[in-house]
Design a protein that fits this description.
Shape: globular
Helix content: 40-55%
Number of strands: 7
Strand order of the largest sheet: 1-2-3-4-5-6-7
Radius of gyration: 16 Å
């Protein structure tokens, strides 16, 4: 069974409308798909409202895949992240992803830190060369690290995994899907984990156990 908690639609910079994204994920064996379009103060309310409508419609017809309502807080002033995350949760977001300090984009310094101190953030996506002190906050606030299949962002998967091991921070293998070809099967997700250096035990946790733990939150 495949879980992916980081995808985008035409409502930010993705190529698919939500229903097609869900259908394509369903065909690839997904049992849960998080729709997490890029959000800031200008659009988070609209994004969450749209995704709730999609979730509520689809569950009556495709009950073998779960649509998870989310956002990815992206390129906002770092100090605003905790407040922004809380607003998203209060508006109805089931998960809040924060666009971490990937080495291939000009993400503001301290984005990882302010994400790490928020009780309302669920996943720190592609956190780049995150430091151990920030990671201690990640652990304290029960935030998941993302191991990603996304080109560029994946360059630091090994570092993220090493920090995860040092502190026993749970990981999830996500895609950061923007196009149909970005969605991956369970077997390809295994290859992403193996390529990052995961052991068999770590693979099982990231692909099977940790996603279920995240789903228990809502």
């Amino acid at each position: 069974m495949r879980y992916d908690f980081h995808t985008h639609t035409v409502f930010s910079d993705g190529e698919l409308i939500p229903s097609e994204l869900v259908r394509r994920a369903k065909v690839l064996g997904h049992v849960a798909i998080g729709i997490t379009d890029h959000a800031d103060m200008s659009n988070y309310k609209e994004l969450i409202e749209k995704n709730i409508a999609v979730r509520d419609e689809i569950k009556d017809y495709w009950n073998d895949i779960r649509v998870v309502v989310g956002v990815e807080i992206t390129h906002v002033p770092p100090k605003s992240i905790p407040k922004m995350a809380k607003k998203c949760k209060n508006r109805g977001a089931e998960i809040v992803v924060v666009h971490g300090e990937t080495i291939v984009e000009p993400v503001s310094e301290e984005t990882n830190y302010y994400a790490s101190i928020s009780e309302d953030v669920d996943i720190l996506a592609h956190p780049g060369l995150i430091d151990i002190e920030t990671a201690k906050n990640i652990l304290e606030n029960n935030i998941f690290f993302e191991i990603t299949s996304r080109k560029g962002h994946s360059l630091t998967n090994g570092h993220v995994l090493n920090i995860s091991r040092a502190l026993n921070i749970p990981t999830l293998i996500n895609t950061d899907t923007h196009a149909p070809s970005d969605l991956i099967t369970y077997e390809f997700a295994r290859k992403v984990g193996i390529g990052s250096g995961m052991t068999s035990k770590e693979l099982n946790e990231s692909l099977n156990i940790n996603p279920k733990e995240l789903l228990k939150r809502f």
